[in-house]
From TrEMBL:
Belongs to the ribonuclease M5 family. The lineage of its organism: Bacteria, Bacillati, Bacillota, Erysipelotrichia, Erysipelotrichales. PROSITE patterns: TOPRIM. This is Ribonuclease M5. It comes from Massilimicrobiota timonensis. GO terms for molecular function: ribonuclease M5 activity.
């Protein structure tokens, strides 16, 4: 029996919906790529109030743009991220091409962001030695299921997820990645 997901999952297209519904008992909203319109944003806003919403877009630039457009309108939606390396098909990059285990893992490790407070200062972030260390940055993205991005995006997402310097140090220590 398929696992039921209460929240509505926002995806980019029909093939993404087909993959999600093969793996889960879940409802989706399709943005039709970057053609995300006001009516769809209104629907997402309403569904967030009643059922909750999870964004699962492709790990590429258009996917990030769609994610940002939704978050501007509905800041408290949940986020699920599939790594680029797990979403590469023969000719395309996306959720429809992603490994099933990667999609399952993304939806089981949903992240909630909040813009209310700053859990990590820029000084603390710098002191973690993440900026010049791509491997460490990518490890932190993975350990906290925050998707992919540059150092500035990581700083922003760590704060939005209310992750502190101590949380980061504890995870790095647990995985011997200091």
């Amino acid at each position: 029996m398929k696992k039921k997901i209460k929240e509505v999952i926002v995806v980019e297209g029909k093939t993404d919906t087909a993959v999600i519904q093969k793996l889960f008992d879940a409802d989706t909203i399709e943005t039709h790529g970057l053609a995300l319109d006001e009516a769809t944003l209104d629907l997402i806003e309403e569904l967030e109030k009643t059922r909750g919403v999870i964004i699962l877009t492709d790990p590429d630039y258009p996917g990030m743009r769609i994610r940002n457009m939704i978050m501007e309108r509905v800041p408290h939606v949940k986020q699920a991220f599939v790594d680029k390396k797990d979403a590469i098909g023969k000719k395309k990059l996306g959720i429809a091409e992603a490994r099933e285990e990667a999609i399952i893992q993304a939806l089981e490790n949903v992240v909630s962001f909040s813009k209310e407070s700053q859990s990590l200062t820029w000084e603390e972030f710098i002191s973690l030695d993440i900026i010049g260390d791509k491997q460490k940055r990518l490890a932190i993205y993975d350990l906290f299921h925050l998707g992919y991005g540059n150092a500035k995006t990581l700083f922003k997402r760590l704060n939005m997820a209310s992750i502190t310097k101590q949380d980061i140090l504890n995870k790095l220590k647990a995985y011997n990645l200091q």
